[in-house]
Design goal:
The structure holds two protein chains of two kinds. By secondary structure, chain A is mostly helical. Chain A has helices at residues 5-15, 33-43, 56-62, 68-75, 78-105, 109-121, 129-142, 147-154, 158-163, 177-187, 195-204, 239-248, 250-264, 271-283, 288-296, 314-324, 333-342, 364-379, 391-394, 398-405, 423-428, 437-445, 454-460, 466-478; strands at 208-210, 216-218, 228-230, 233-235, 327-329, 418-420. In chain A, helix 5 (78-105) crosses helix 16 (314-324), helix 7 (129-142) runs antiparallel to helix 8 and helix 13 (250-264) packs across helix 14 (271-283). In chain B, helix 7 (182-189) crosses helix 9, helix 9 (207-232) crosses helix 10 (243-256) and helix 10 (243-256) packs parallel to helix 11. The chains are: A mainly alpha, B alpha/beta.
Chain lengths: 486, 399
C-alpha cells in the first residue's frame, strides 16, 4: 500500500522539525512532502534572533571584567562571586526555556531542529551563561550554513575553549584536550588520526583562549609558532589552518554525514546512502542546507523502514506535545524537571560526546514517566519524583540550593499547571464521525504501523461529550509506547 | 515454595533466553524465579560529589598531612584509631565497630590513569568502567545484566534505590529498575490503562516498538514482584530516619525475601566540599555510619551478613592541600570501604597514600578501580569479568 501524503508529511515534520503543529493539520494531506520541505527551508532561511538570557543585573556585573584570570584573582568578594554564579545558573535555565519556546513556536523548524542536532554534536557543559548563549547563537546562525564556518566559529567560542581546557593550552605546557576532541568528536572520529597528530594539532591551538564575556583572544606570547606536522601536512600552522586540514579530509564529511543520517533518518545506517551523502557534502564544500535537502527530498527518506523507528529524545517529546497541544505553563520550571528526570537537559550534555540517544533514553523509570506526562498535564497532578544531584552544577553548594530553590532545576512537588488551548485541535475533528475519531487521532499522533486498539482507547476515554472524548482519547494515545516514536 | 540451588538458577536463566521469542509480554506477570537464601548479594554505595578520602581514612602520624591541612587536618586524638598510624573520621563510629569486628576492609589509592576532575565525566568513567579517553554508553553493572540475563524478563537482577536510574545500571539490552520505595513503584505502575495497553500489544516487526513494550512489560511485572517480595519478610530492625537509612532498610527487606536481585545500588551525597568541609562531611558521615551500622546489625541478626558484600566509591578524592575556603578541591585517587561478613582480607588491605610522592599536588593511584570491579564480578558474583569489562584485569583477594 503506498504511504499517504499525511504520513509522509508528518514524518518530515517530525524529523526536519519538532513534529506537526496543530495549525498545520489542515494541510497535511494535500501538500506534497517536497512542497512542504520548500516551505520549511524558506521559513528557516531568515537570520535567527539572539536569545539573550543574561539579565541586566548580570550584564552589569560583567562590565569591566575583561579577563577570566582577574575574576579568579578575587577582585570580587566571595559573596559577589557566589551571586554571579547563582545568577548565571539562573540565566542558563532561562536560556533553556527560551529555546524550548523557539522550538515550539518558531516557523523555522528546520533551523531549530538542525541547531538542536549541533547542540548535541558540539556538546558543551559550561556554567557561564554568557558562554552558553554565545555558543547557542553561533550554532543557530550557522545551523544550515556551512559546516566549515560552523566549526571555525564554534572553535573560537569561550564556551568550547574553556570546556575543553584550551585556556590552559600554552606553548610550554600544551593541553591536548581541545585538539583531541575536535578530531575525535567534531570532525573525523576515532581511529582516523594518530596520537602524534593530536600532539601536533594541540600545538597549533596554543594561545587560543577567551575572556570572561566569551570573546576570542589570541595570546600571541603563549602560541607555539614552530613547524607542525598534522595528517601528513607540515607548516607553521595556527588553529584555523589545522581546522582546514581536518576539513580537507574526506573522512570528516563521512563522519558528519553518518551522524546526521543516524539522527535524522535511521539509527541503522545504510552505508551506501550515507556514503552518497558524504560524497556530495564534501563536493559542496560542507554546505549543510544542501545535505539536508539531499536527505529530505529523497524517496528513500520516506521509505517505510525509516518511518516511526526513532525514539524521540526527551526534548523532542516535550516540544512535540506542546506543538500539537498549545499550552500555557504556569510553572515553566516543571519543564526543566521533566528534562532532568527524562535524561536530557539542554546545555547539560552528559559529556563532550553528547547524548547517545536511541534506546539509551528508555529504562523503566523514564518510560513510566513518559507515559504519565500527558496525565500530569491534564490532572494538574504533582510530581513525586526527585532527580539526582548534579555536582557540576551545584558546585559544592547543593544543600543550600536545595533549600533555596527546590532542586536548582525545577521545583519538585509542584504541579505543572498547564492550560491547554484545545480550540484549533478540536475544530480539526469537527467533521469526523464519532466512530472514526480514535483512528483519525491515532493517525495524526502516531507514526508507527500499529497502534493501541481503538477499543482500549475508547474504554478509557471520557464519553460524556464529543469534545471530552477527543481530549481524553488524545491524552490516552499520547500515553502509549507508540507515541514515544517518530 | 521451591528452593533451588544457585547453579540451577543460573541454568534456568539461560533457558529463559531460548524461550524469549514465544508470546511473552504477559508471561512476565506470572512465574518468578526463586533465589535461595545463601545467595550472594552486592550492595554498591556511591558517595557522590567526590568524598575527601584523606579525611576519611586519616594518616594521623603524617606531618605532610597536617602541614597541607592546617585548618582541615583532623587531630589524632579526635579521630577513631585503627592502627598507630591510621584513624577514621570521628563520625564513622559504625565503621570503626565493623573494623573491630573484622567486617571492614579498606582499599587505598584507588583510581585510574589520566584522571578527570569534572564530576560528571569522572562519574561516567567510574559508572561505565571506561578509560578516561573513551566514551561508553553502557554501565558496568548494566553489562553484567546483559551477560547474566540476556533476553530474560527479570530486570530485577539489579535494583537502584532512587527515582532515576544511573548509567552504571544500564546495559545494552537489559537495564535495572530504579525505585525509592517498592510500594510507590507499585502504585505508579499499577495503572489499569498501562496493563491494558500491554495486553493489547501483539508482536510486531518494528524493532523499537517491541523494545518499548518489552521495557513496559518488565516494568509492570517487576513492580509487582518487588512489591510482593518487599512485604514477604520486612525488616523489623530500627534504622535511622534518613534517606540512606530508609534505603538500606528497603534493601535489607528485599535481601530477606527470595527476590532474585544480585546487585543493589544506592547513593549518598553531596560530598563536594569546596567550602565548609568539616560540617558537611560530619553530617554525611553520621548518616552513612548510622545507616550502615543498622544495616549490618540487621543482616547479622538475620544470618545474611556473610552473603552480602557492600562497597563504597566516589568519583574522585580531593586534593591533598586544603583550599582557602575551609574546603578541598577536586582530586584524584581515593579509598574504598568494603563491608561484609565474608571478607577474605580485612582492615587496611594496602598501604596508605604516599604524601611525599604526588602528581601536581594529587595522590597517585595504585589500584585501578576496574580491578575491584573485576574482583567482585568474578569472585563474588561468579560472572565473566573479562567479557563484562572488555578487558582482563588482575583479581584482588579481598573476596
Amino acid at each position: 500500500m503506498p504511504l499517504s501524503n499525511q504520513l509522509k508529511n508528518q514524518h518530515l515534520l517530525w524529523r526536519a522539525g519538532f513534529g506537526p503543529a496543530v495549525e498545520q493539520l489542515d494541510n497535511l494531506d494535500s501538500a506534497s512532502p517536497q512542497t512542504l520541505y520548500k516551505r520549511l527551508q524558506k521559513a528557516s532561511s531568515k537570520k535567527p534572533e539572539y536569545l539573550q538570557a543574561a539579565d541586566n543585573y548580570l550584564q552589569g556585573l560583567m562590565i569591566g571584567i575583561q579577563d577570566i584570570g582577574r575574576l579568579q584573582k578575587q577582585e570580587m568578594s566571595p559573596e559577589q562571586r557566589k551571586e554571579l554564579q547563582r545568577k548565571s545558573r539562573e540565566g542558563i535555565r532561562s536560556l533553556n526555556i527560551y529555546w524550548i519556546n523557539e522550538m515550539v513556536n518558531s516557523d523555522a523548524q528546520l533551523r531549530e531542529k538542525m541547531a538542536f542536532f549541533w547542540h548535541g554534536h558540539f556538546a558543551c557543559r559550561n556554567l557561564n551563561v554568557f558562554f552558553q548563549q554565545q555558543l547557542l547563537d553561533v550554532i543557530r546562525q550557522n545551523a544550515l550554513g556551512n559546516f566549515r564556518d560552523l566549526l571555525h566559529e564554534v572553535s573560537r567560542t569561550g564556551a568550547m575553549l574553556n570546556f575543553l581546557n584550551n585556556n590552559q593550552n600554552k606553548k610550554d605546557h600544551p593541553n591536548e584536550n581541545f585538539a583531541r576532541e575536535v578530531m575525535e568528536l567534531f570532525t573525523m572520529g576515532r581511529g582516523n588520526y594518530t596520537e602524534h597528530d593530536v600532539k601536533e594539532a594541540a600545538r597549533a591551538f596554543t594561545g587560543w583562549g577567551a575572556n570572561a564575556r566569551g570573546e576570542f583572544i589570541f595570546r600571541k606570547f603563549q602560541h607555539d609558532d614552530g613547524s607542525k606536522t598534522v595528517l601528513g601536512k607540515t607548516g607553521n600552522f595556527d588553529g584555523d589552518e589545522v581546522l582546514d586540514i581536518l576539513l580537507d579530509q574526506k573522512q570528516t564529511a563521512r563522519y558528519i554525514s553518518q551522524k546526521i543520517y543516524r539522527f535524522f533518518v535511521n539509527e541503522n545506517v545504510d552505508q551506501k546512502k550515507s556514503e552518497w551523502l558524504a560524497d556530495r557534502f564534501y563536493r559542496n564544500d560542507y554546505n549543510i542546507d544542501k545535505l539536508m535537502e539531499d536527505i529530505f527530498t529523497n524517496d528513500w527518506f520516506y521509505g517505510d523502514n525509516n518511518i516511526g523507528c526513532r525514539i524521540k529524545s526527551p526534548i523532542e517529546l516535550l516540544v512535540g506535545i506542546q506543538r500539537m497541544l498549545p499550552m500555557k505553563l504556569e510553572n515553566e520550571e516543571a519543564l526543566l524537571l521533566l528534562e532532568r528526570v527524562l535524561g536530557q537537559i539542554l546545555f547539560y550534555p552528559p559529556n563532550v560526546a553528547g547524548w547517545p540517544g536511541g534506546k539509551t533514553w528508555i529504562d523503566s523509570s523514564t518510560l513510566m514517566m513518559r507515559m504519565r506526562i500527558p496525565q500530569l498535564i491534564n490532572d494538574r497532578d504533582e510530581f513525586n519524583i526527585k532527580p539526582k544531584d548534579d555536582d557540576d552544577q551545584m558546585m559544592g553548594r547543593g544543600d543550600e540550593m536545595k533549600k533555596k530553590d527546590g532542586y536548582g532545576m525545577g521545583k519538585a512537588g509542584r504541579p505543572i499547571n498547564a492550560e491547554v488551548d484545545w480550540s484549533a485541535y478540536l475544530k480539526f475533528y469537527d467533521s469526523v464521525p464519532r466512530e472514526q475519531l480514535v483512528n483519525d487521532i491515532s493517525g495524526i499522533l502516531l507514526q508507527t504501523k500499529k497502534a493501541v486498539g481503538p477499543e482500549v482507547i475508547t474504554q478509557y476515554a471520557d464519553n460524556s461529550s464529543k469534545e471530552n472524548f477527543i481530549k481524553t482519547a488524545t491524552l490516552q494515545i499520547m500515553s502509549t509506547p507508540e507515541y514515544q516514536l517518530c | 515454595m521451591v528452593i533451588i540451588k544457585r547453579r540451577q538458577f543460573l541454568q534456568l536463566g539461560s533457558l529463559a533466553t531460548a524461550s524469549f521469542m514465544v508470546p511473552k509480554f504477559l508471561k512476565a506477570f506470572e512465574k518468578v524465579d526463586r533465589v535461595p537464601p545463601g545467595n550472594k548479594v552486592m550492595v554498591i554505595l556511591q558517595l557522590s560529589g567526590g568524598n575527601d578520602g584523606l579525611n576519611t581514612v586519616i594518616p594521623v602520624r603524617n606531618d605532610i598531612y597536617y602541614r597541607e591541612r592546617p585548618r582541615l587536618g583532623i587531630e589524632q586524638t579526635k579521630a577513631l584509631s585503627l592502627t598507630d598510624e591510621v584513624a577514621l573520621h570521628p563520625a564513622l563510629v559504625g565503621l570503626k565497630e565493623l573494623y573491630d569486628d573484622g567486617s571492614l576492609g579498606i582499599l587505598n589509592n584507588v583510581g585510574y590513569p589520566n584522571p578527570d576532575r569534572s564530576h560528571f565525566r569522572s562519574m561516567d568513567i567510574w559508572q561505565t568502567g571506561s578509560g578516561s579517553d573513551e566514551y561508553i554508553t553502557t554501565g558496568w553493572v548494566g553489562r553484567y545484566l546483559d551477560a547474566q540475563c540476556h533476553g530474560c524478563d527479570k530486570p530485577t537482577y539489579a535494583l537502584e534505590i532512587d527515582d532515576v536510574l544511573s548509567l552504571a545500571l544500564k546495559g545494552q539490552n537489559a537495564k535495572a529498575i530504579a525505585m525509592k520505595d517498592p510500594k510507590r513503584l507499585f502504585g505508579t505502575s499499577n495503572e489499569k490503562f498501562f496493563k491494558d495497553v500491554l495486553k493489547n500489544h501483539r508482536d510486531n516487526s518494528e524493532e523499537t516498538v517491541d523494545y518499548l513494550y518489552k521495557t513496559l512489560s518488565e516494568t509492570l511485572s517487576s513492580a509487582n514482584y518487588i512489591f510482593e517480595q518487599s512485604k514477604a519478610h520486612p525488616s523489623t530492625t530500627e534504622y535511622p530516619k534518613t534517606e540512606l537509612g530508609n534505603g538500606l532498610k528497603t534493601i535489607a527487606s528485599l535481601i530477606f525475601s527470595e527476590i532474585n536481585t544480585k546487585v543493589y545500588y544506592i547513593s549518598l551525597g553531596s560530598f563536594d566540599t569546596h567550602v565548609n568541609q568539616q560540617a558537611q562531611q560530619q553530617r554525611l558521615f553520621t548518616e552513612f555510619s548510622d545507616a550502615v551500622k543498622a544495616f549490618s546489625k540487621d543482616l547479622k541478626a538475620n544470618n545474611r551478613f556473610n552473603d552480602v558484600l557492600m562497597f563504597t566509591f566516589s568519583e574522585f578524592g580531593r586534593r591533598v592541600s586544603q583550599n582557602a575556603s575551609g574546603g578541598t578541591d577536586h582530586g584524584t585517587a581515593n579509598n574504598m570501604f568494603l563491608i561484609g561478613g565474608a571478607l577474605k582480607q580485612k582492615g587496611l588491605i594496602n598501604p596508605m597514600p604516599d604524601l611525599s610522592d604526588l602528581t601536581e599536588g594529587d595522590l597517585k593511584y595504585k589500584i585501578d578501580f576496574k580491578t575491584v570491579y573485576a574482583t567482585v564480578l568474578r569472585n563474588w558474583l561468579d560472572a565473566d569479568d573479562t567479557a563484562i569489562l572488555g578487558k582482563k584485569y588482575e583479581h584482588l583477594s579481598f573476596c
